[in-house]
Amino acid sequence: MDSTEFEHTVRRYRDRVYGFAVHFLGDRREAEDVTQEVFIRLWNHHHNLDGVSAQAWLFRVARNSCIDVYRHTRLQRSVVSDDEAGMERVAADSQSPDQWTEQQIVEEHLQTALDSLSEPQRSIVILREIQGLKYDEICQALQLPMATVKVYLHRGRRTLRKQLSEIYAAQLT
User: Fold this and answer.
1) pLDDT above 60: residue 28
2) Percent helix, strand and coil across the chain, each rounded to 5?
């Protein structure tokens, strides 16, 4: 892979890798760091990728990096106050406050539900439902058999439905 191929690969996959990391971690800054790390690793290991799908390799590295960050930050996270984080998001968003609040509530509920999933269910659900990867692409990225991916996806969807139903039912009462 020469520098032109590398640049093409970065342009082609950076948004998808970033999107995966955002949904996995629930934090845009951490996702940016993971995305940057993934492409640094791609540059450092591009000579070892002969015959390997770039997409599969990128998502495998992204997933592993996200797991590392997730473990580390859950132990040592210094949380920015909700008010400060909310003000930053409102300032950066052109939606009305009501629309923004509603969207944030939905995103928070989804992130809470995703956080309840164990691995590899979380990765599989994000790759399939949010990133739109095909089953064979997920199998390749996570190095899992097709049957395993389908079972984990089914269980992950079922768990998400249950979690989201419970969250919304609790809000109505």
Assistant:
1) yes
2) 85, 0, 15
